[in-house]
Amino acid sequence: MKEYSCGDVVPGCGARFTADTEEEMLAICTVHAQHAHGLTDDAMPDALIASIRAVMLTSV
Ligand SMILES: [Zn+2]
Question: Which InterPro entries match (predicted)?
């Protein structure tokens, strides 16, 4: 299980997500970024993906 707090990458955002896999988490984050953070591309920038991977927590 993966856990991610968007506020760790985007200060002030209170959204928290859980997903079974890193790929699923990135898909969820992409949709969240499009709706909550004004992302207009189909995918997040590589730098943002790297930031999310870096702060994503793994739990059982
Ligand atoms: Zn957010």
Answer: DUF1059
Question: Ligand 1: distance of its center to the CA of 60 in Å?
Answer: 23
Euclidean distance between CA atoms 4 and 6, whole angstroms: 6
Distance 57 CA to ligand 1 centre (A): 16
Distance 32 CA to ligand 1 centre (A): 6
List the one residue out of 32, 27, 40 whose CA is nearest residue 6.
Answer: 32
The 10s digit of each residue's pLDDT in 22-57 is 999 999 999 999 999 999 999 999 999 999 999 999
